[in-house]
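User: Can you predict the 3D structure for this chain?
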Amino acid sequence: MNFEPGENMRGLLLKRADAIYVLVASYCLLSVILKILRPDSLEIDESEQAFLSQYLMLGYGAQPPFYNWLQYGAAAVFGISVASLTILKNALMCGFLVFYGLTVRTLTNGRSLPAVAVLGALTLPPVFLLSQRDLSHTVAALFSVSLFLFCFFRVLKHPPRIGGYLFVGAVVGIGILSKYNFVIVPAAALLAILPEATLRKRVFDWRVLACVVVVATVVGPHAYWVINNLGHATGVTVAEMKEGADATLLPHWIEGLVSLVIAAIKGVAPTVLVFAAAFYSDIGKILRAESIWTRVVGRMLVASFVLVALIVIAMGATHIRVKWLALFTALLPLYLTLKIDAARIDPGPRLPVLLSVAGLTSVGVVLMLWARVFIGPLIGDYSFAHTPYNGFARAVNAETGEPPAAIVVDDRIVAGNLRIQFPGTPIILTGFSPDLDGESIVPQGRILAVWPVEGAKREKLPPRIEKLLAEQNFAVTSPEPTFVSIPYNAGRPGDVYAFGYVWAGSN
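Assistant: Here is the predicted structure, written as structure tokens:
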């Protein structure tokens, strides 16, 4: 009796169309478990989310606030922890993949086509790699894209109803609050349906006005904040997009377009190669096939990148990252799946290949990231995950017996990690205040000021911390800073990380 796992799984996916969603949920659950089993030190985006979860604000800086609001709610209900951070992100990733499959089910009749699309989405670098490594707002935006596609195409396929238009408006608003460049996706969708006579009338339906009103209602409060804090909202992103502009020999618009093309190729190459390998015998037939939905999604892809190119030229951007294009490259697996459907090809025999590649890349990456934490120190490779904030917290608690009234730091990564270790203690970051206007208010009581003693000139209290304490009328009570060397998480014997701290009290 022959046992072929690929054939058995293919049979399961063919017999049970919802089996792909069970696999997706299992993958996201595995990601959560492996993250919790790692040391509880956070990466860059995770640290920022942990720190900002103290506040409910209309705006937080360079990124729109939807993910921060979700994280604030999760922390309020479940407490702030590695678990609440990673469960939220993986729930959004699971939602992205589920609605992606449901979108295909809305547009096609093939039982295995949703599985093809979902497995294809898992071959996108922002999905299987970047999101698992350290992304937050992009994950929320991917979820919004998937939900928008589902709602948008349901409105197009069914008789017009006011409820459908209102829901699309709400999703567009949420998408803009997830990532500013999300606005390109609905704009591209509207452009894509204009050439189709049967769909064009939906653009000029009176219900579109109701949709616009919902978008404005959802986005309005944050838009008001952006208008009054334009520098905070755009400064960092613009600076990143113009990174290296002074050193380039080419005109900025040429450098930007070249960077855009390279980033786009990096973002879609794995998916194109996987589909080409799985359907190599039918490539010609697939390329020639079309339907109304392949035309619409194909135009969305083209329109999205044309709009991005125009923005690159207008801004003089010279540096484009793969993750910034994730919302647009996410359309590719959907487009390829619809082309397969239009070619009337049975994708069932190709499912084992797609499942093997998608499983190897997605599951392999989360296993690799988990294993790297324990293997890296063997060759002296330490990362954010190894910084021993837990050991530092134990040392401070052993000294005082009770947590400080507040902790002052001058680094966001330190702020987020200490929020995990001291969940009931306010974490004050120099240069940041909840209203972005003036200095943070430090509560009364015994204050702990903390900084990493890594690099030059870190043996004394950092000037920014010293300035904040002075402005808030706090005096340092320690004659000299205290320095502690804590063994790295999962590190080699003898390898330590140094922290400095002082205590301060109100005058």
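The chain has two domains: 5-38+81-345, 384-506. The beta strands are 406-409, 427-429, 447-452, 474-476, 482-487, 496-506.
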